[in-house]
Amino acid sequence: MATGKSSGGRGARFAVALDPAAAALNASSHFDNRLLNDDVRGSQAHARMLAARGLISGADADTIVAGLDRVCQEFVSGARELDPALEDIHMNVETRLIELIGEPGRRLHTARSRNDQVATDMRLYARRSALELVSEIDRSRLALYRRAREHATTLMPGYTHLQRAQVVTLGHHLMAYAEMLARDRGRLVDAERRAAESPLGSGALAGTGLPIDRAATAAALGFGAGPTHNSLDAVSDRDFAAEIAFACALACVHLSRLGEELVLWSTTEFGFVRLGEGYCSGSSLMPQKRNPDIAELLRGKPARAIGDVVALLTISKGLALAYNKDLQESQEPLYDAIDTAKLALACCPG
Amino acid sequence: MATGKSSGGRGARFAVALDPAAAALNASSHFDNRLLNDDVRGSQAHARMLAARGLISGADADTIVAGLDRVCQEFVSGARELDPALEDIHMNVETRLIELIGEPGRRLHTARSRNDQVATDMRLYARRSALELVSEIDRSRLALYRRAREHATTLMPGYTHLQRAQVVTLGHHLMAYAEMLARDRGRLVDAERRAAESPLGSGALAGTGLPIDRAATAAALGFGAGPTHNSLDAVSDRDFAAEIAFACALACVHLSRLGEELVLWSTTEFGFVRLGEGYCSGSSLMPQKRNPDIAELLRGKPARAIGDVVALLTISKGLALAYNKDLQESQEPLYDAIDTAKLALACCPG
Amino acid sequence: MATGKSSGGRGARFAVALDPAAAALNASSHFDNRLLNDDVRGSQAHARMLAARGLISGADADTIVAGLDRVCQEFVSGARELDPALEDIHMNVETRLIELIGEPGRRLHTARSRNDQVATDMRLYARRSALELVSEIDRSRLALYRRAREHATTLMPGYTHLQRAQVVTLGHHLMAYAEMLARDRGRLVDAERRAAESPLGSGALAGTGLPIDRAATAAALGFGAGPTHNSLDAVSDRDFAAEIAFACALACVHLSRLGEELVLWSTTEFGFVRLGEGYCSGSSLMPQKRNPDIAELLRGKPARAIGDVVALLTISKGLALAYNKDLQESQEPLYDAIDTAKLALACCPG
Amino acid sequence: MATGKSSGGRGARFAVALDPAAAALNASSHFDNRLLNDDVRGSQAHARMLAARGLISGADADTIVAGLDRVCQEFVSGARELDPALEDIHMNVETRLIELIGEPGRRLHTARSRNDQVATDMRLYARRSALELVSEIDRSRLALYRRAREHATTLMPGYTHLQRAQVVTLGHHLMAYAEMLARDRGRLVDAERRAAESPLGSGALAGTGLPIDRAATAAALGFGAGPTHNSLDAVSDRDFAAEIAFACALACVHLSRLGEELVLWSTTEFGFVRLGEGYCSGSSLMPQKRNPDIAELLRGKPARAIGDVVALLTISKGLALAYNKDLQESQEPLYDAIDTAKLALACCPG
């Protein structure tokens, strides 16, 4: 842990390359590239802490921080492409850093393992995404409030069992969705808060004997709840991914109800709304048609998000402590659930 | 809404009985009977509020409250069995109440619909169950702490990829599970808090014109967050069920990791533990065997709980507002997830 | 394997009873009781084979067969209740058999283990259920054909995106469902055929050294594809459960589409059908309402069946060979999926 | 249907472009590009049939067929990139075809709609993939047979409950996996056969009045079971996707069992195998380690495939006939399940 050597991907130690089929199964840089910014931020905080504790020199830390900025900029700008042979984003960043700054780049892994690094990156990404979803929800809720106020006295049939029951206002109806989104918001805020513990310093599984300052890296990275309490748990915990994906799936379920209603309301039979062409498709065969494609997609989107929740819960089932490679599989469903909820919220009509 | 008549099951209005196949699909008293206590509590609070508001007489309220106590006692004691022909627990309670106390029993449905009644009952049940799970988790965590303290210096191999990595203590290892359970606790507490809004007064979908006191029933039933804000949402919202089931599923996933470890540790090859006979089965063919059945069941239990989460999310997908009968399907997966988590937690070794 | 002793539940060997919480987790007689008939049939075939091979006497076999008939009759008639303390249906049958016929009852377990016995019972049950579902589907298809013929010239709007597209006939529309059910039928037939291999003789995991006749028991029990080929696989395979549950879930999905259409068609807005009172509920508050409860339940039922598929796939994930107790968890989701499909098919309007 | 005009994406008719958020939700060319070959094949068969029936001229058909070859070659070679603004692969192909060959390109849509076209493309892709998986399974089974023969007398402990039970041979143990794969093969073959009906000619939902020859296109495209029977069903059926995904998920479950065993066997405690470096990763911190990454990924892969099955079943739940845009969501989970099974099978050790 205390060595200045690269923590290494698999390539670091073995003479033999991965079997090609194995390499295909193992590859992750096509999805973990979205951790780039968080990986760099996490490493910069770690380097500064190492310097503050005298574990590396201040000059080394400055070189590392500047080098990481440059690596990040190269990848983001497209000046440099990720090398899939380096398997993942972490090895890509690390390898390029060492190319650029040499020996100090190797010292970055002092008192850090790939296991606590990945856990940190994923939490940073997940927390950031949860907060972005909260903003997107707030935007949607505001739009719903406005639209509801406009229709505070617009009468419409209220339904149970899709049978007309009592008269309600469209404003009241729309505010039902604002309520659902308010709960979704609450779940995301709770999940983000619960994820706000820093795994850095957990090492591969058992921490480190070096005098690191976990509180400092936690604070620098905005982990408001401080460092995680147990290193074995910290490197193998993906609860935050499952919890955020669940919140995303439920938000998609809510929007799917709105999607269904928009599909219904835009039928000839209901005839309550005429959707804008910017949300529909037509048919050359039947030029009178205006198909509510976007509302239908809103209705269909929960399916994949529910699948993501299943994947995330299933991955950790029956997994012995601590880190196991199976956990690599927890990234894609998390990203898909977040992306799906974002796409759906962006289409939420107000 | 203001009428004193029974809100009725389907039988209340139609001359024709349900087709037998339809009745089989429709029946719910074999599972919603667990709402008995909550149904009675909810109705008693409602009756007292009606009297306080002058919507029924104080004498009627007293008669209703006492009558409901008696109905409940009859069913709980087994003196009376539920009649499946009455479809659900609510009709069973109501019918028996009217048998016992006559006309005042009909007044119980003043300003209440089956839709807000069911939503209230389910929330009461779900919240209570969540808190029971919290207690069970606290008991498990305490047991883990104690055991961890005993083994604060017991050395064992720490694993990543199930390969021996660094030496840890058994105490440290056990505390990883205490951390997982602490997060599970947090999720249940959050879910319970979010569910603590009272749907009573939402009517079938559009509230009631009668001068009821929603804050009073909310307070009487311990809904700390007061009445729900939107009646259309309140009668069709089952988020609380999905959220609690998710928390249960994740807790089961955590315990399944412990289950896997106990299975591994009790193998000849690992040989770390010898499970007590009270948690094992034997084999007459191979008398040397001690099979870790309970640990295996702990490992297997998340499967059904994940299935329950899927069911709960899927039921509400694409459902137009407000109440739809599909929501009846949200009861069993909720109950199964709660039961499963309770059974698993009760077996959590400390 | 060759001993005449009971293969025993856990109680057979250990002095210590299961811990109460463990017993609650372990109990299965409340669901595996539906294997009663298949357990008895399987044991009778086994006993007759043992006699034919001279492994037990013909008189013993006769006594066992008659005794099992009596045990079965006692439980089916309700003259005797299952004892939950005996954990499962198999121990209940075996214990009662030995009470009734004494020593010969113990010889039933010659060359058989609980593992191949349970696998056989479940396959018998699953195959039988699949064929019952096929019959139910055929009934539904016939009803659809008849109704379609009646409406061979009844015009209605054909929809895409729920927008009116081209005119079709109601007969053509109904026949779309007959097509879906024909595929469901095919899947069930394929699943039944694939399940028609007999695990009997696989022993606990490694077969038996006794000169049993696996082909004979396979034939006697209608396993058309003969004995299974690999004993380790045979005792740990629950593919048939997952495959049948999947076929059930997809059938429920098809019926849910019909459910949605019936809900739509019975709205005021569409007004295409007026559902019979035998399939609806009313409302005392809104006497004009006729709520399509059964159609809504048809729409909602796939949720649980999808959950069952998830449970069944998840249980076997990452399970080392051969039998593990986790597999006990594969019974309930299978039964639930079968029951759900049966209930839904029985309500399929023709 | 009979017009020679483009069947059009949404852009064909509306003056207004999709709202940007809607366009993001709607985009599919980043995943449906894998239908390129099947789309071209399907269109070529359709064009030849139109000419044979005299619905277009032979010269037009030749021009279309050659043009489609060129379009395909341009996209495959990378000479031309897909334009995301054209939304999907079909519009990309069609637009480029018309650019290249002019008016005849527009005649390709005579008697065809996007709905039957997409259904045909997806079936072609799914069937081809199922057969590729069958080949991959056969390769794996052969490898298992060979390895099993080598180890026909290699003794090892047989396990139940992960407790040593009876001695078996490694050959026998490996053949258990060959059995599982044989069932997976059977499921894929059945699914492929069931999918071998051609939707071409179903039009948007109601067929076409033109004298097309559905049997001819079915035969040309290898749809051995001929044309589909019901047009409403044909354009809205995605059973084949769910069924193949299910078969993939179950195959992944089987391989995950092998993955778990390889993880166990390569532990210090079991010590049965030493995995080749080409399937492992190392650790610079702990140079003695050889982490079984590939076996762990095999163990983890079913999670996503189960999620895919959930998504596919959920998408069609409660969907009114006939085509709805929700069905676009059925592509990605199908592709993911197929890819996952292929990747896992390619790593299946023999």
Describe the protein.
- Chain A has a two-stranded antiparallel sheet with strand order 1-2.
- Chain A has 14 helices and two strands.
- Chain A is mainly alpha-helical and 350 residues long.
- In chain A, a hairpin with a 2-residue loop joins β1 and β2.
- The N and C termini of chain A lie far apart (53 Å).
- Chains in contact: A-B, A-C, A-D, B-C, B-D, C-D.
Could you give the distance between the termini of chain A? 53 Å
> How many β strands of chain A by DSSP?
2
| H and E string of chain A | HHHHHHHEEHHHHHHH
**Could you say which overall geometry of chain A the principal axes of the C-alpha atoms support?**
elongated
Average residue-wise pLDDT of chain A: 94
**Subunit organisation of the chains:** homotetramer
Low-confidence stretches of chain A: 1-8
Q: How big a fraction of the residues of chain A is strand? A: under 5%
Q: Could you say which structural class the secondary elements and strand pairing of chain A correspond to? A: mainly alpha
Largest interface: A-D, 69 and 69 residues
Order of adjacent strands in the largest pleated sheet of chain A: 1-2
The proportion of residues forming helix of chain A, as a percent range, comes to: 55-70%
What would you report as the Rg of chain A, rounded to the nearest angstrom?
24 Å
What's the number of helices of chain A?
Answer: 14
Quick one: biggest sheet of chain A?
A: 2 strands, antiparallel
